[in-house]
Amino acid sequence: MRMVKAKAWYRMGYLFEVVLITAGLIVLLQHPFHLTANSWLLYLFGTALMALSVVFPVTLPSMLISLELVFTFYFVMTYDIATALWVNFLGELVGTLLLAHKSRKMAIFTNPALKVICLMAGYLAYSLVEPVLLANNMEYGSKVVKLFIVGIVFFVFNHLIIHVNLFLRQRHFSIRTGLNAVMWESFIYLAVFPLAMLGDLLERHLGAYTLLVIAVPVAAVTSVIRTVSHLQWSNRVNYACIQLSMAKDLSTIYQKTFHIAHDLTDARQVMLLKKLPDGSYQGLDDRDEVLVENVRHELLERAIRERNVISVPKVKGSLELFPDWEARSYILVPLVGKTEVFGVICMGKPHSFGFKQDHQKQLGFLANQVSIILDRNHIYEELERAAIINQLTGLYNYQYFYEQLDCQFQQAKTTGEDLCLIIFDIDYFKKYNDIYGHIVGDEVLRQVAMIAKSVCVQHGVLLARYGGEEFVAIGRMTMTQAYELGEEVRRKIQDHQFVYQEHTVKNITISVGIAHLQEHDALSPSDLLEKADQSLYWGAKEMGRNRVAVYSSEFDQRLFVDALTGLHTIHYLRRKLRSLCENQTHFPMHFLLVDILGMRTINDQYGFEVGNRVLIDVSYLLKNTMRGDDLICRYMDDEFLVVVKGIPECDLGIISKRIHEAFAKHSFHHVGHVAIDLTVVTLGSADEEPVLLERIDTARRSYSGKQIV
């Protein structure tokens, strides 16, 4: 039905043009001309110069403009009606014949007939006032009046007929396009009228050669208009590219490119065909909404392959891209970077030869600039992706996870939505590394990540590698949904056959811990993470592994408090560290590693009961020596870690002296005095937090850090 309606409209446009041509020929036949020995040069120069003006116009988005009207109105002022009509008809006819391969065949006759009709309408309007002018002996004044009356009527009729014809052939009318055409032609008339009047003054001295004289300023003004037009669009494209260069997301770049390309050509239909990994194209509109899927066409591949703007002046048969467009001409603008194919901007017009050579040049410049910007953004995206993606597993890294955890935690707190955090840990992973080697171990990590990701993506859950053999997921889920997700991942990994080259790794299982923001009353993102970690270790690992466990408050004491000394565990410090770093007043933050020298000798000589008593006394001694807000942890068997916040480095000597004096004064039961070694690791900013524990562990093994005696 839609195609039938389109054909009916097009036939109306065709009929309108037939009527126009017929009317023009009738007018001409009513005003026959006689070629004389004195007039052949006039006809020759006039026809040739008008034809050249038609052949070399200035291309605008919705129209072509030229200064041929200088010659048109020169003949109106200077010669009789028959000469003006026939020279204009012949000049327009020759010009359109020379452009026959670049225009519709019907236009060869339509354009000359249109000019004749518009001129005749102007002459008829002038005939109403001509008797009054002649009666008052206003010979030259009558010429000026004739120029303005014929010119104004010509202007009105020309635009009226053109836009009616365009409406019938294209079935739409753009007020913006019409006003733009009127604006440009009004500007042209400011140059046309003075030059036509100049020609009339020179004619009495130069005769037909006047046409050659006024052709010089016509060519100059045409060149100026062409330059201004090109500069205008080049400046607009350059300005748009400056804006595009500041845009980071592709949708913004595509939208702006759409608008520029549309304004440049005044195309009725515009679509971005985005290249997909499978080689097909996805059609998007200027709002980034999908219009068509799985588009494949040789024209698109040709545009990409040649990296050039391709114009299809007449759409026939296999050249048709989108039948629904009812387009009779296309232009394809490839967006191709150095290493990446982004897609093709496709534009269509409902009439043949809708796009000119200037359109191709300007769109080619735009395509080159946009391709450079897209290429740069693609590189930035790859760098940003590399910064947040773990290279081994392809999952997000823990830094990105922390950012998302903060964001989602705050949103869920504000809106009251569900939020669950899930930790996955591969059981006995160290054993597999020892048996099969790290290469096979890395492959196990990759395959586990792949399985977990396939499940998490289906549920809209963010998954990241948390460290070592641990993975963490966060999403808007109820407790039941999170448990089901954890069970699904656990079962799939348990049933998966891990094969890498000649190795088959059997019995890979995972333990899963879950915590819910509201149900488990998490106070902060770190608290939610700590609760999930507790459920993993105490609810899953300690209960036999290969199971899913949910947080319970009974896990708190077991995980974070050392049973012997009553101090915090290093596990507590590891989870607490991030929240400590969130407060800038805590910096610089100093970590004092206190090592009891000769602890093995004490255990050997006095027994473990006495050794444990020494450790308990050391914990009391440190509590009494340090400030109340200093965090004290049992780090390893015979080591303690004291966290001192927000004091300058110069004060560490005082703290060190106080600790040494406390140990020197204290006499331990059965043992007497105990010597210690003190090492300090300083955290200058939150950026150093990810490597802190590694630095402390290095200092513990070597004791080559800063010594304070």
From TrEMBL:
PANTHER family: DIGUANYLATE CYCLASE DGCM-RELATED, REGULATORY COMPONENTS OF SENSORY TRANSDUCTION SYSTEM. The keyword Membrane applies. Residues 417-553, 587-709 form the GGDEF domain. This is Sensor domain-containing diguanylate cyclase. NCBIfam families: GGDEF. Pfam families: GAF, GGDEF. It comes from the Bacteria. Keywords: Membrane, Transmembrane, Transmembrane helix. InterPro entries: Diguanylate_Cyclase, GAF, GAF-like_dom_sf, GGDEF_dom, Nucleotide_cyclase, Rev_trsase/Diguanyl_cyclase. SUPFAM superfamilies: GAF domain-like, Nucleotide cyclase. The chain crosses the membrane at residues 12-29, 41-65, 71-100, 112-135, 147-168, 180-202, 208-228.
